[in-house]
Amino acid sequence: MERRRLLRFLFLIFTSIFLFFLTFLNLPYSPSTAGCDSSGNHPSPWYCTNRFLLKSPTRHLHKSTRHHSSDVPHHPLDPLTLQEFKKVQSIIKSHALFRNSAYALHSVVLEEPAKQTVLTWQKGDPLPTRKASVVARVNGEAHVLSIDIGAQEVTRRETGHLSGYPMMTIEDMTTATWAPLGNADFNRSILARGVKLADLACLPISSGWYGTSELEEKMRLIKIQCYSMEGTANFYMRPIEGLTVLLDLDTKRVVEIVDKGKSIPIPKSANTDYRFSAQNKQPNLVNPISIEQPKGPSFTVDDHIVKWASWEFHLKPDPRAGVIISRVKVRDPGTGKMRNVMYQGFTSELFVPYMDPTDAWYFKTYMDAGEYGFGLQAMPLDPLNDCPRNAYYMDGIFAAGDGTPYIRENMVCIFESYGGDIGWRHSESPITGMEIREVRPKVTLVVRMAASVANYDYIMDWEFQTDGLIRIKVGLSGILMVKGTSYVNMNEVNQEENLYGTLLSENVIGVIHDHYITYRLDMDVDGSENSFVKVDIKRQETSPGESPRKSYIKAVRNVAKTEKDAQIKLKLYQPSEFHLINPAKMTRVGNPVGYKVVPGGTAASLLDVDDPPQKRGAFTNNQIWVTPYNETEYWAGGLFVYQNKGEDTLAVWSERDRPIENKDLVMWYTLGFHHIPCQEDFPIMPTVSSSFDLKPVNFFESNPILGAPPNDEKDLPICKASAAA
Amino acid sequence: MERRRLLRFLFLIFTSIFLFFLTFLNLPYSPSTAGCDSSGNHPSPWYCTNRFLLKSPTRHLHKSTRHHSSDVPHHPLDPLTLQEFKKVQSIIKSHALFRNSAYALHSVVLEEPAKQTVLTWQKGDPLPTRKASVVARVNGEAHVLSIDIGAQEVTRRETGHLSGYPMMTIEDMTTATWAPLGNADFNRSILARGVKLADLACLPISSGWYGTSELEEKMRLIKIQCYSMEGTANFYMRPIEGLTVLLDLDTKRVVEIVDKGKSIPIPKSANTDYRFSAQNKQPNLVNPISIEQPKGPSFTVDDHIVKWASWEFHLKPDPRAGVIISRVKVRDPGTGKMRNVMYQGFTSELFVPYMDPTDAWYFKTYMDAGEYGFGLQAMPLDPLNDCPRNAYYMDGIFAAGDGTPYIRENMVCIFESYGGDIGWRHSESPITGMEIREVRPKVTLVVRMAASVANYDYIMDWEFQTDGLIRIKVGLSGILMVKGTSYVNMNEVNQEENLYGTLLSENVIGVIHDHYITYRLDMDVDGSENSFVKVDIKRQETSPGESPRKSYIKAVRNVAKTEKDAQIKLKLYQPSEFHLINPAKMTRVGNPVGYKVVPGGTAASLLDVDDPPQKRGAFTNNQIWVTPYNETEYWAGGLFVYQNKGEDTLAVWSERDRPIENKDLVMWYTLGFHHIPCQEDFPIMPTVSSSFDLKPVNFFESNPILGAPPNDEKDLPICKASAAA
Questions:
Q1: Does residue B57 sit within a domain?
Q2: CA quadruple A336, A341, A342, A345: dihedral, nearest 10
Q3: Structural domain includes residue A34
Q4: Is B216 inside any structural domain?
C-alpha cells in the first residue's frame, strides 16, 4: 500500500509538472506579438508567445510589413482593426454584464452594416457606424451583443431559445485537451497502455447531440481521445483506441472515462512521419518549376479590396467562415461598367460524419465551422508551397477568449495561376482550309486559405476566371482519423464491412467518412432582385411523321415560386441547369441576365434523415437550396452549432417555404465527398479536389474575353537558374 | 430566254473558275513537304502545298528538327514511319486488288502486334514483324487488309457483314464540300439568298442512318450545308439556313437539294470575327505569366517513349483516335520496380447529337472519330498558347487517300504543368501546438492534342500526377453550330422550347446538343488478369440499442462476374466506387491492388434507346462498361461507323454478357456534356472542361509521394522581362 501511495504521489507531481509544461508548449503558432502590449489580466497569454515561430527564413519570402497597429477601416465591410478589437475588449471589461463575472468571448467580429447600407455606400462616403458583433458566454449563458465601438454602447440581441452553444474558443480546445491529465484514473489508463505521459497527444472531439443522456441537456460536453507521439510527429496514426474521456467543457472536469480497447495495440510509428526532415533523402524527380511574372502580378490589394482583370471584390478573414468574399463585381466589356454578381460568399458550415457506430466513434460528426471555427484553424500559409511566387498574403486578426486580439499571419493568399490551360481556341480544319489558329491562354486569380482542423487539411480556393466564371474549390489533404485494431492483415478479417473502413497498415483502419462543405452564396445578379430558374433538360418524343428522329432533348424553364421549388436533389437522368436571373434585366436579344451554379463534386448524404447527426446536418439534405435574403440566416447549421439539436438549420428555414420569385436571394450549395480510405492515404493524403462553378449565362452580350491577346514570346520572361541552386 | 441562257453560261463559267480556285484554296494546313517527292499520280496533291503555312515565326518556338525521312521504329507499337508508309503505298499500288481499280485508302496505320507479344517484348529484342492495317475501298467495297511490310504480303481480314462505311478520307470531305458548286440549281439557290459564290463556305455533314429512305441502304451519303464568309472569318455564325444538299459521297453527284429557309435572313457579320487581328486592340488586363523551368523539363521523349517522374508510357498519334497512350507503367517507390497500370487508352468514339428534330437539323448526330477521324482533325498546336514553354511537340504522320504519307506537325504536345496546386499538406493546429507546416507543390505531366472537328475544338489532355493518378480531361471550345432564324429578340418568341436552343444574337440560335466522349481503357492493373469490383456505398441502419446513431454508411464489395454486372449507370443516391483490381496481388496488409475510375463530367444521354442515333451511339447507354479484352473491339461505335445501323457497338458486344472475373479487362468510360448554349458562347466559346480520373486504390503500400521535397527559394529561377517586351 505504501508503494502504491508513493506511486500515486509521484504521478501527481509528474502530472502537474507535465501539465504545466504542455499547456505552455501547446500554444498556437502566432509569430506576431501584436496585441501583447495590452494590459491583460493573463500574465502570459498563449497568443503572445513567438517561441514557436517557424525558423526557416529562406522559405519565407513574404515579409509582412503591415504592423496592423495603425490599421484603419476604409470600407463598411473591413474587419475590425487591432485598435477596434482593443476598444471592444475594454468596453466589455467595464460593462455591467461582465463585471465580476466569469466570461469568455466566443466570437468578436465586425457587425456588418445592413446590406442596403453597404450597397449604397461609395468610396469617399463616411463609413457607417463601426460595430462589433460579440458572442459571449457569461456565467454559462450565451449572449449576442452588438457593440457600437465609437459610442461605446452595448446592445443585447435576442436570439430566441436555441439549443446548443457558441463555437469553442481556442482556449476551450487547448485546455480541454490536457485537462484529463489532471485525472489520476486517466493517467493510469494511459500508462497501462504502455504510453509515457510525455508522449501523449490528445484531441478535443465535439460530442454532437444524440438525445441519449441527461448530461447532454445540462452540460457543455466534449470528448477527448489520445495518441502516442512516441517516434513520430504523426501521432494521429498511433491511436490509443477505445479510450474516451467525457469532459465538462466549462469546468474542465472529467465526467466519465470509457476504456474499452485495452487489447488493441497502438500501431507502430514506423513509416508514419511525413516531415521532410524524417525522410530518406532521394533525388527530386521533377526539376524546379515556377509560375513567373516578369512584370509582377496583375492584381492589386488595397486594404481588403482586390482588383484583377475585370474583377473587383472585398476579401476578409473570418474566425468562423475562414474567408468571406463580398461585393463581387465584374466589368462589362461592352459598357465598361462594373456589374454586381454576388453580394457575399463564404463557407457556412462543414459537416464531417464518420461511419462507425461503435462506442468510441459514433459521435464523430464534426461541424468544423460552427464548432471549431474554420478560420481559427487556418494556419499561416507556406510561401512557395501553399501558394506560388508573387502571391500576396493577408493576415487575419482574431480575438482570444478574453478579447485580446492576435494576428494570424499569412492566413490567406492571393495569386495568379497559369498551368497551361486554354481560355478559348479555334483552328480551322483541313475541310475549310482557312489558315486560322487562334488560341488564348487561361490565367486565373486564386484566393486561398488552408485550414487544419486537427488532422484534416482543407485547401479552400476561390478562383476567378477572366470569362466571368468563379470556381469554388476544396482540396482535402492532411491526415486521416484512424482507428486502432488488432488486425494486421485482411486475411484475419471475416466480415470486411465490420471494419467500418480499410486496413491501411498493421493495426490501422482508415474509417469511412463523408465531407460536406456548404456555401452560402448571397447572389446579386446585376442587382438584388433575382429569381431562381430550374431549366429542366428533358426528353421529348417526336410525333409520328414529325421527324426521322424519335426523340430529342429540350430545355424547359421553371421559375421557382417558393423555397420548396428550389430544394434540389441532383439527378443524372433528370438533369437541370440552375440559373439565378435578374428578371428585370434583359440582354440585347431579350434573354434575362443570369448566373448558373454548375454542380461538381457531388455526393449526397445517405444517413437517415431522422438520425440525430443528420438532423443537425440537415442542410445537406439537398445539394442546392435557395432562400430569401435574411440577415439572421448565415450559418447553415445554426447560430449555435455546438451540441445543438438541429432546430436552427437551413432545412428548417427553407421549410417555411417563403416566396423567392423576384426577391433578394441566397443560394446554398453543398460540395460532398464520400471517403473510403485507401493505403495511398497513409500516412498523409495526396490532395483530393472537387469544385463547383458560378458561371455567367446570358449575363454578358457575348464572350467577354474575345479581345484577350495571345501569348507572345517577347512578353515572356528570360529566366536562369538561381546561382544558389 | 436569251438573257437567261447568257446568265446560265456566265454562271457556269464563273462556277468552274471558282470551283478550281476554291479546290486549290481549300487545302489542309501541311507545313511539311515530306512525302511530296514521291512520284504520285496526283500532279499537285493537297498535302504537298505549303502555301498556307502560318507566317508568324516569332510565335513558333518549336523548330521541328525531325525530318522523319530517316525515322526507324524502335518499339513494337511505334507508328508507321514515312518509309513504311511509302512501302505500303507501293505494295498496294502493285497489288491485284487495286490494279486498274478506283480505290481510296481510308486508313493506314500500324497493325499492332498481339498484346501478348508486346507485353513480352523488351528493349533490345528484335521488333515483331512490322505490319500495316489498311482500310481500303475498292470499287465501292470496303476491305480490311493486313500488309506485311517486309514480306510485302497482303492478307484480307474478314470483317463480317457490317453496315456502314469506313471513316471518310480528307479528300472525301474536301471534295464533297465543294461539289455542290458544280450544280447550277445549287448556285442559283445561293445567289437567291444574296450570297456571292466567292463568299461561300460549306461543311460536309455526316448523314447518320435513319432507315427512312432507300437511298440510305445503297449509297454513301453526305449532306452539305453552307455559310456566308462575307465580312468575317467566322462563317459558322452566318448560316444559309434550311439549304441542305444531299450528295453521293462516291460520285460527288448532287442527289437532292432541299431549300426551305428562304425567308430566314443570314445573320450579320458584325461582332462575329474572333481573330486577334480583327479586334479593337485593348490593353492586356493580365501581365505576362509563364511556367518556367530553369533546368528545363524533367521528362524525356525517346522516339515514342515518354518518361517522367515515376511514369513511363508509349505515345503515338492516330488518325482515328487522336492520341493513343500505351504500356503505361509507374515505378513503385517501395521496390523501385515498374508496375503496369494500363496497356492502352484512347478516345474510342465521340457522339454529338444535336437536339432539333426539324428537316435541316435532325441528322446532326456526329461521330467525330469514326466518321471524321479525330486525329485527322487535330491541327498543329500553337506554341505558348496551346501549350506552355518547354513543351515538346510530336508530329503525326498519316496517309492521304492514295496512301501518300503527310506530316501533321506539332500535333501533340507534352509539358509539365504547375498552377500553384498542392500535392499534399499538413499544418499542426493551435490545438496540438506542434510546429509543423509541411506542404508539397503539385506538378503534373500533360499530353495534349486539340482537334478541330469543323466548328468545334476538343482539347484532349492526359494528365499524369506523381501520386499515381491519371486525369483524363476534355476541354470544349471553338465555335457553336448555329441555326438561322427570323427572330431578333426573345419578345417575338411565343413558345421558347421551339427554338431548340438559345437566341444568341440577332437571327442566331445556338442549338442544344450533347457531347459524349467514350474512352477505351485497356487496364492492366499490375498484370493483365483483373476483376471489376463495384464497391457500393450504402446506408446501414443500426439495430435498436446498438448505437446512439440510427445509421451509417458502409462499403459493400461486389465482384462483377459477367459484363452485365458492369453496365453502370451512375446514381447520386446509390453511389459506388469502381475498382479494377488484380485479385492475385495483395498489399502487405492484404488488400487487392487496384485502380479506380473516379467519374466526373457526367451527363447521360436522354434520347430514346430505340431512336436511330441512340442505337448508333448506344455505347453511351451506360457511363461505365467493362468487357473482356478482345482485339476486334476497339471502336465503341463499330469498325465502320459512317452511316451504320448500330449493330457493332459496345452495347451489342456487352450484351453477350461474357465472364469478366479475373480476366484481361477493358473498361469504357464516357464523359458527357449537355450544352444549352448561352450568349457568352458567341462568337467563340470560352473553354468548358470536364475530366475523370484513374486513381490508385491500395495499389501502393502507402502515399507514393511521401518523399517529395518542398519547393525551395534557391531552386527557383531568377527571371527578368524580355528586352523585347
A1: yes
A2: -100
A3: no
A4: no
| pLDDT tens-place string over residues B46-87 | 443 332 222 233 333 344 456 899 999 999 999 999 999 999
What is the model's pLDDT at position A430? 67
Q: Is A274 a catalytic residue?
A: no
Residue B457: active-site member: no
- Cα–Cα distance, B536 to A674 (Å, whole number): 11
Q: Are residues A260 and A310 in the same domain?
A: no
Chain B window 638-657: which residues touch A at a Cβ cutoff of 8 Å? none
* Among A602, A600, A618, residue whose Cα is nearest residue A610: A618
> Which of A318, A368, A522, A648 is an active site residue?
A368
| CATH number of B132's domain | 3.10.450.40
The answer to whether A191 contacts chain B (CB < 8 Å) is no
Contact list, A437 vs chain B (CB under 8 Å) = 54, 379-380, 382
- State the residue range of the domain holding A474: 301-377+454-715
ipTM: 0.93
Residue A420 has its nearest CB partner, among B61, B363, B415, at B415
DSSP state of B151: T
**A573 and A662 inside one domain:** yes
Question: A500: Cβ–Cβ under 8 A, 6 or more apart, which residues?
Answer: A355, A356, A357, A358, A361, A483, A509, A511, A512, B552, B554
Whether residue A366 sits in one domain with residue A468 = yes
Q: Which of B119, B135, B157 is the last residue of a domain?
A: B157
A253 & A362 share domain:
no
Q: Contact B700/B468 with Cβ under 8 angstroms?
A: yes
- Are A661 and A568 found together in one domain? yes
d(Cα A684, Cα A678) in Å, to the nearest integer?
11
Mean pLDDT of A169-180: 94
Pairing of strands B338-353, B513-523: antiparallel
Confidence at B45, pLDDT banded by 50, 70, 90:
very low
If DSSP states are collapsed to H, E and C, what string results for A291-341?
EECCCCCCCEEECCEEEECCEEEEEEEECCCEEEEEEEEEECCCCCCEEEE
CB–CB of A385 and B719 under 8 A? no
Given pLDDT bands bounded at 50, 70 and 90, which one contains residue B160? confident
Task: List the CATH number of the domain containing B577.
Answer: 2.70.98.20
Whether residue A260 lies within 8 A of chain B, CB to CB, comes out as: no
Can you name the residues that pair with B529 across neighbouring β-strands? B664
**Which residues on neighbouring strands pair with residue B693, listed in sequence order?**
B471, B598
- Contact with chain B for residue A28, Cβ under 8 A: yes
In a domain, B560, yes or no: yes
The answer to whether residues A397 and A68 touch, using CB atoms and an 8 Å cutoff, is: yes
Helix, strand, coil tally for chain B in percent (to 5): 15, 40, 45
Confidence of residue A138 (pLDDT cuts 50, 70, 90): very high
A589 grid coordinates? 436579344
Whole-number pLDDT of residue B495: 84
User: Inter-chain contact B355–A420, Cβ cutoff 8 Å?
Assistant: no
Domain total in chain A: 2
- Contact at CB, A387 and B26, closer than 8 angstroms: no
- Helices B2-25 and B184-192: crossing angle, nearest 10°? 90
The torsion angle over the Cα atoms of residues B193, B197, B202 and B207, rounded to 10 degrees, is: 60
Q: Is the same domain home to A616 and A707? A: yes
Mutation target to probe the A interface, by most A beta carbons within 10 A, among B258, B422, B443, B614 is B422
Interface subset of A 121-160, CB within 8 angstroms of B: none
A278 touches chain B (CB under 8 A): no
Are B717 and A722 inside 8 Å of each other by CB? yes
Residue from A456, A500, A595, A669 carrying the catalytic annotation: A456
The answer to whether the CB atoms of B718 and A715 lie below 8 A apart is: no
**Is the pLDDT reported for residue A483 higher than 70?**
yes
Last residue of one domain, picked from the residues A231, A251, A272: A272
